[in-house]
């Protein structure tokens, strides 16, 4: 298993409340309202009221509540990519990917209640589910790229989907994992990544393998 102590402890933003942008305030307001009122009937007016912002400022930042959800996923990506774990000698691609995905869980930790509601209610919102699914695949592509795992071609697309499936499977364990060190989540994620390890090809090796035959 990868380094348990090498993960960051960011909150998904990396900024104090005084420096929160409109986008951050709107995302946080959406999460607060989802946790207490649900997603399906949540209105942009309610989010604006929770954020204590005029609705015009919400409109200027996001055009729909689905866009706010995508803003949350992007914020988590940025939190992970801002301080990726330093590579170690002889480190396996799986280990580095493990660290990055655990950092995502760290960043999402304060929002478990809202995420549990979203996981349940997005099933009844095809547009929201479609947007979230596409955003998750983009996120997994960035995690793989940061881990120096190839994402090009058909093989790369398969790696993205396999990684997304492993992450979502571990996320179900994470949702119920109240341990301080997320030990159950770590074990679940490590086991799922081991199952797909043979597909996790380093990008540098992939480029050599795909070099023209007449080069």
Structural write-up:
With 215 residues, the chain is an all-alpha fold. It contains 10 helices and no strands. The longest helix is centred in the C-terminal third of the chain and has 23 residues, at 153-175. The N and C termini lie far apart (39 Å). Residues 9-19 and 208-215 have low confidence and may be disordered.
By oligomeric state, this entry counts as single chain
Q: Topology as H/E string?
A: HHHHHHHHHH
Largest sheet: number of strands, sense, barrel closure = none
Global structural class: mainly alpha
Alpha carbon gyration radius: 18 Å
Which SSEs are present, and which pair or pack?
Elements: H1 22-37, H2 44-51, H3 55-61, H4 65-82, H5 93-108, H6 112-121, H7 126-146, H8 153-175, H9 183-195, H10 203-209
Helix pairs in contact: 1-2, 1-4, 1-6, 4-5, 4-7, 5-9, 7-8, 8-9
Main attributes of the structure:
0% strand, mainly alpha, 10 helices, 215 residues, 65% helix, single chain
Give the gist of this structure.
The protein is mainly α and 215 residues long. It contains ten helices and no strands.
